[in-house]
Amino acid sequence: MGNPAQDITTEDLGFVCDEPKCELASGPLGLTAAEIQARVLALQTKPPPPANEDPDEDETEEEGGDEDEDEGEPEDLESGDDPADPTAIDPLGDGAPCPLCRAAQPPRQGKLLAIANRGIYARVLAAATGLFGLRYWQLVESDSTTGTNRLLDAQRHALGDATKSKATSTFVIGRKLITAVVLKALPFDGHLLRLGNRDADVFEMIVIPAAKGKKERKKKGWARGDAKYGLDHSPPGPTARANPVYVRELQEDLIWLGYFSPSRGNPCPGKFDVFTLGAVLAFKQDLAELYGVSVSPTRISVAPGSVRAGEFHTAIWSQAAFVSPLRIMLDWCSALLGGKKRKGVQRVAAGLARGVKNNLAKAKTAKSFRSYLATLEQRRATLAALADAWPHVAALENVDKPFTPFAPKSASNSVSQLAAVPPGKQPKHADAKALASDAVWSLDEYNARDDNRSYFFTDLRKALGALHGALDEIADARGRIDELTPPAEVAAEWDPVKSATETTLATLNKLLGLVRFWILDSPRQVEAWLAHIAELGTVDQPTAVYLKALREGGKIGPNRRPAYQLQAMTLKDDFGSADTGGKFLRDECTGRPANKSGGKSTTMPEIVALQFFGNESGLTFTHTLAPYNTRAEDKDTRIIKMGADVNAHRRGSFDPVFHVGGDWFVSRGWGVGQATDVNIKLDGVQLRRGLPVLPPGAEAVQHPKPYVDREVSVADAMDRKVLVRYDRSDRRDCTFRNIPDGYYYDCHTCLKRFFDENLRGEGRHGWGSVFVPVGDGIIGDPRKAKRFFVDFERYTPFARGKDGVEDPEAPKRYQRFFNLEPPPVDPNVAAVLRKMDGSTAIRTAAEAVAKAAGVDVDSLVAGVEAHVKARSQLPCSWFQVRFGYTGSGEQAFGSLFDLLDVAGDLDTKNQALIKHIQEASALRRS
Fold it and tell me: Which helix (H) or strand (E) holds 623?
């Protein structure tokens, strides 16, 4: 928002009239003073109508007007005043009549309205009214007796500021409070925008016809289409602009506010695609949570002319919180399978069934039966508690109906009161295989990614297996309990426990039957979910008003926060090229003091930095607004690169099919630094999901340096995001060439050895690689990776890969690669590692090995963990830094291989990145 103390001149203003019959009432942007003067002169020279001709409709007498009094030219003005000069129309401060109305035959009573079309005040006015790019009319009257005063004074006074302008030579109408700030046209001409809408021209893949002797080809270009808007996809009405670009205008606004990123998912300009849907949902979320705007479950229309500055508080069409079908099923998976600190239903049910079969049914004495009975009651109570605490019970109350509105909801019945699956109802699919083949999981329109599908179905298959296993255990236990006859001495004790157990098992059987139905029928739930969020992701009229207000720096809602706006940039703000960016990164690294192993980090290897930042930004800092820009003045404007991660199985572009609920956006990264933080302070500005959030009452947008400065962005990301991770590691710096008191950092040659000696493995996660993922108590599963270790011995199935063998010469390789001689591996530790297939827990394997070897289990587990830890910083701590930067799981483990592939094998399309890695490597070797 601009500085309201700046002067406004007549050149910044256009004028219209509040009299609908006046020519000035129909101009799209108002007329300038010169244009008004020309029209007044034209009216003065216009011949009167013939005597037998009725006056034009525009010139009929106004009710209450006095033709004799107002007729004629404005001779009553002071000598020398030009009636068409807005600086002279109100010399005494008695009002501001419209010059064209006064010059009309007969004169009219229209009053002048001013609109700031240019200059800084255009944006100040937009912030006050909450809209821009539309038509803002501002009626200003005067009660001043001291002559004409500045229009900006009137605006200040309307906001309760008594400050007076120092300059008096600029345009003035009056100082009285603004009496009307009304939006006469709604954003996007009142059209509702939603998923599937498109502009008349859409930037998409088009076919270039074949030239003579050549083949046809495809490229991105503007394709002509039919513009469709509104809930029924009806075409624009008669008030629409020519060749409307409403969707592209929406996308442009969302880009400036940081909700839409052209750099993720390949969104289509001019088409309301799934990425636009995600951006709108995120924007609505912040409207409610940040700006305090209320939400409505139904759409509220806004009448043109009803939007007044400071008085618009209409609720948006949205809901406060969402629960996706995937979130429901994942929580059920957790309840079925349990976790490290809690037992799952399947495990407890299996324990109960085994207890009945192997203990109670075989008890020979009252004493032993009584002992087993206590254990049974304990397990029954645990099962009852797990059932009572079952998540999302409300979703099971009508399993054959969509769980709309997919919001957090308390159950109206307890678990025991749930009704069974309705008679005759069957889920959409009979088993997990049929479920996995449903088309809903692969919807191109909704960007349903294969990685997410695979990730989700791995969990779901385990959950369905556990569910069916639990149902089988329950059926077995119920049958055996029914047949069991206890010793006579404990019959009285058996009856109440039996009754309670039968009740618990019956309740659990019904509960799991409902869960099974819901999961196998889940494609119908997902279809309803997608339809629901597409509906609530519609840009309704109130949302459009708030969007336009924030786009121009206004304050909305009860919280009155100004929105963060991306800073407008040019090529001068960028490195100019990826080559220049690469050179800067190298200089930034080599210009810092050298690291020492075991000490705090001051720099990072330049090749690691090249891969690190090049992967995030391509070594450039900004990108053009084209082809999203709709304003001619923005054709050369550039903005910082920004990625947007979403709450799906794997962070990335928006994927509503596999969205796990909660926040629509997890975080945003920006610029070359890509310092993606969720909720911290940066340069004194609070970040929310990575986007700066200005405090209530702020008068200007603050742009944190690490957010908008190409060089500060890199330095900040390196200091605050990268080096601190090195300092949390074992601080094992460069091992290549074993340079004492310094660093060598020829990462390319170092990592290339893993390819030359077939140690890299296959696929994105390096199956058969010596780099092995490690999770909590488990080894060999990239999905659960929280760290890694280097298994040169190839003990683990992951490192061996298919048909792989162990390497007895591993100690020699350690010596050759890292100048290390690791101690020999305990045979029992090696035996445990051989069982680490990605699913077997370390303790489970250790228990089997310890029992056979006659050693202590806890000591063996500690030995395995010590072995893994000793090899987790190899070949250097920088691998651990790259891994930790991305978090955990398969994406983090994949990022480790991104570093390996790019730095070691030059596997990238970025030629500047390849060039600088090769140059840096050559300089280090020389």
Answer: strand 622-624
Q: What is the DSSP string of 115-132?
A: EE-SHHHHHHHHHHHT--
Residues 902 and 778 both lie in one domain? yes
Per-residue pLDDT tens for 325-340?
A: 999 999 999 999 987 6
Rounded CA separation 849/30 (Å): 86
Judge if 172 and 46 occupy the same domain.
yes
Instruction: Kindly state whether residues 456 and 581 are assigned to the same domain.
Output: no
Per the structure, the count of domains in the chain is: 4
Direct distance between the N- and C-terminal alpha carbons of the chain, in angstroms, rounded to an integer? 54
Beta bridge partners of 692: 687
- Long-range contacts at 651-655 (CB < 8 A, ≥ 24 apart): 651/887, 651/891, 652/264, 652/265, 652/449, 653/264, 653/265, 653/275, 653/278, 653/447, 654/265, 654/274, 654/275, 654/277, 654/278, 654/279, 654/447, 655/274, 655/446, 655/447, 655/448, 655/449, 655/452
β-pairing verdict for 691-693 and 665-670: unpaired
Domain closes at, from 167, 185, 203: 185
Question: Among 798, 783, 785, 780, which residue's Cα sits nearest to residue 842?
Answer: 780
Using CA atoms, how far residue 129 sits from 111, 155, 184, 307, in Å, is: 20, 11, 12, 8
pLDDT reported for residue 164? 58
596, 741 in Cβ contact below 8 A?
A: yes
| Integer CA distances (angstroms), 620 to 565, 570, 640, 713, in order | 20, 13, 9, 12
Please check whether residue 285 is in contact with residue 663, taking contact to mean a CB–CB distance below 8 angstroms: yes
Structure tokens at 815: 């010596």
Helix, strand, coil percentages, rounded to 5, for the chain = 45, 10, 45
Strand 771-775 to 778-779 pairing: antiparallel
Band of pLDDT at residue 382, cut at 50, 70 and 90: very high
Q: Quick one: 754 and 894 in the same domain? A: yes
| Euclidean distance between CA atoms 104 and 90, whole angstroms | 18
Mean of pLDDT values over 561-579: 89
Give the C-alpha separation, 510 to 519, whole Å. Answer: 14
DSSP output for 838-904: SSSBHHHHHHHHHHHHT--HHHHHHHHHHHHHHTTT-S-HHHHHHHHHT-SHHHHHHHHHHHIIIII
Based on the domain organization, do 398 and 476 belong to the same domain?
yes
Pairing of strands 316-317, 295-296: parallel
Q: What is the pLDDT of residue 458?
A: 86
Helix axes 842-853, 827-834, angle to 10 degrees: 130
pLDDT tens-place string over residues 812-842: 888 888 888 888 899 999 999 999 999 899 9
Residue whose pair of structure tokens reads 């498109």 in the numeric block = 198
Q: Which domain holds residue 137?
A: 10-185
Q: Does residue 565 belong to any structural domain of this protein? A: no
Q: Is residue 366 exposed (0-12), middle (13-18) or buried (19+ Cβ within 10 Å)?
A: middle
Strands 307-308 and 638-640 turn out to be: unpaired
Query: DSSP assignment of 307-336, as one string?
Result: EETT---PPEE--S----HHHHHHHHHHHH
The predicted-structure confidence for 207-262, as pLDDT tens digits, reads as follows 888 877 778 888 888 888 788 887 766 666 666 777 788 999 999 999 999 899 88
pLDDT at 687 over 90: no
Answer yes or no: is pLDDT of 923 > 60: yes
pLDDT value at residue 784: 87
- Which pLDDT tens digit goes with each residue over 772-816? 999 989 999 998 899 999 999 999 999 999 888 999 889 888 888
